[in-house]
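Milestone M4 deliverable, item 7.
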Amino acid sequence: MNFDRINITDHLKISQIESFLHRNNLSLDMSIIEFIVAYDDNYNIIACGGVAPNIIKCVAIDKSYRGQCLALTLITEVINLAYDLGYSELFIFTKPEYEQLFKQCGFFLISSAYPNAILLENSKNRLKEQCEKWKKLRVDGKKIGSIVMNANPFTLGHRYLIEQSLKMCDHLHVFVLQEDASMFSYQDRLALVKQGVQDLKNVSVHNSSPYIISKATFPDYFIKDKKILENTYLEIDLKIFRKFIAPSLGITHRFVGTEPICPVTSEYNKNMFYWLQDADMDAPPINVIEFERKNYHQKPISASLVRSLLQRKSYKELLNYVPSSTFSFLRENMFV
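Output delivered:
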C-alpha cells in the first residue's frame, strides 16, 4: 500500500476522501488541515486520517482491510503528520470500541460519554501537570465560583452575570473558551473580558485550556443524531470540569445565565445541573446557580444580538448592550 499527504486545499482529492468517508458512515470535518491517505495498488483509497489543530479526526479504514494491522500503521502515519505540522499535544475523540487501538498508539483516556464517544490524549501526565498549574492559582475561601464563557464579544449581560456571581462567592474564576471559530478571535475576546472586569475585586480571568472543551473542536463527523451529539459533547466537557478543573482550583460553584434564545445553550444548562451537581461521580459535586439573564427593554442581552446590531450598523443602539471598553474596541478596530 502507499501513503500520501493531502492538503485540505486539494479539492479534487478531498472530494475523493469525502466520498470514502461517506462510504464508511463518516462526514468530512472542515477543521482538518491535512490528511494521511492509504491507497491500494490500484490507487483506491483504503484508509485515511486527518489532522486539525491538536486533534486527530476522520480516521477510517475500508471494511475489507480491517483486522490486517493497517490501523496501527495508519495512526502512526497520522501522528507523524501532526508532529510535522507542529502539533505534538494531541487529542482524539472516537468511539469507545477504538479505545484499545489508540491506547496501543500511546493515547490515554481522559473523559467518556458511553456508548457514544470517548476522549483520549497522547500523554499520561499532561492533564496532571495542568492540574498542578491550576492548583498554584487557588484562592482561599469557602465559596469559590466559576463561569465559562465565549464572550463573542463581552456584553453588559456577561458583566451582570459576573457581578451577580460575586455576590454569592468569595472569589470567581472566569474562563474564556479558546476556540477561534467566532466572529472575534480568542485573544480579542480574552482581552475584552479582562478589560470589562478590571474594576472588580476577587475575579481571576484565566487563559483558557484545551481541557475546557469547545463546541468548535468537538467532532460531529461520526455522530449523526444532533441530540445525541450535543449530549455527548456536554457530558465529556462537564465531566472534565468536575473531575479535574474544579478540584484543582477549589471551585465549589458554577454560575450561568438563563438561555431564552438558544436551545443548545439551554440544554447545556440542564445538563450542567446533572453532571456537575447530581450525577454519582468520583468527584465532589459543584453547586450550579442559574441567574435570570439581564434584559434591556424586555429584550435579553446577548452576544448574538450585539453581532446582529453590528451587521445592521445600529451603532448607537450598541451602547445599550456593551460596556464602554467593548464599544471602544469595536470603534478602534473599525467594527463601528
